[in-house]
Amino acid sequence: MSPDKITPPAKKRNLILIYVESLEATYTNQQVFGQNLLKSLDKITSGWHTFNYQSAPGATWTMGGIVASQCGVPLQEPQYKSKRNLGHVDNIGTQESSFMPGILCLGDVLQSAGYINAFLGGARLQFASKEKFLRSHGYSVLWGKAQWDNLALNTANGWGLLDDELFSQAKKILTRLVKENQPFNLTLLTVNTHSPHGFVDQFCSQKGAHNFTHIVTCTGEEVANFLSFIKKNNFDKNTDIVVIGDHLAMINPLIYQLTNQSKRFIYNKFYSSQPLVRNRETINPFSIYPTILYMLGFRFKDNRLALGVSAFGFLNPQFEQLNPSFLGINQNKYKQYYAQFWKKSSA
């Protein structure tokens, strides 16, 4: 689909999209952990829309989750290059000049509508070809480890800038973006809850955090504090907000409690100052893309983009979202079709 087939709203609202590393809804289950580990985050997002957010093939790691939620398709190598020994999914795209240039993604649509797309993450932008994907799909403002190093910030740990400082910098950049006479998308990616052990930043250390349970709770508090900053400054009046885990948790000290559950869902919260009508209870990563655009006021045929269907607005039963198990079974069947996403521009 080309951008001209997606109708932007007359009055554009800003977007703040927060990917919280490995955050799943199971952490809120008091029967599992004896308490809601994300109590602070749940409190400030009370009344927001939330869904049973299932995982799906091709979206079970960070770049897979980002691509699926912004482009509506799983992340995989195209068939014509599938024999290369990449060694790890994080190497997908490393040998390409651009990252899936043949598919229209969230950043492309927003850029075409006049948005500034900005990304802030603590880790190196080059890791897992993240920078290549972002620049290939409409993001023009990128902040990662190298940029934080230029500001003499502490990035000495294994990944880069930790979450307390990331949110501190995000407040400054958000304040600048609000002053611009241009709609924006500010996308954040946290790191503290990364496997296998997580990271304790200064804010969490001062709160006495010393194990992974504490890290999860403290991460929820840090996201909640950022949302509180947004509200106190009235930035939410013209800004829609999405808080989602990038994927289900991987190996960490709480993994046995998590995997013992019959159903696991990715954490998700959606806020808009405009009224929204949900059309179902269960979504998967591919539906995040059309859901975000719909909540921002964009309109498109059948509320459907790529493999995703908006969770808000009219739901045509003919185009209800594909079951993730179907995608897993048939993933190889569509590899040749999928190859076009790597070959040609969507323009």
- Write the CATH fold name: Alkaline Phosphatase, subunit A
Biggest sheet: strand arrangement: 4-3-5-1-6-7
Q: Give the mean pLDDT.
A: 92
Counted by DSSP, the helix tally is: 14
Query: What's the CATH architecture name?
Result: 3-Layer(aba) Sandwich
Structural class: alpha/beta
- Assembly category: single chain
Got a strand count?
A: 10
Low-confidence stretches: none
- Give helix % range: 25-40%
Q: What string gives the helices and strands in order?
A: EHHEHHEHEHHEHHEHEEHEEHHH
Distance between the termini: 9 Å
Strand proportion = 5-15%
Q: Quick one: biggest sheet?
A: 6 strands, mixed
The CATH class turns out to be Alpha Beta
Which superfamily, in CATH terms, is the homologous superfamily?
Answer: Alkaline Phosphatase, subunit A
What's the shape? globular
| Count of all domains | 1
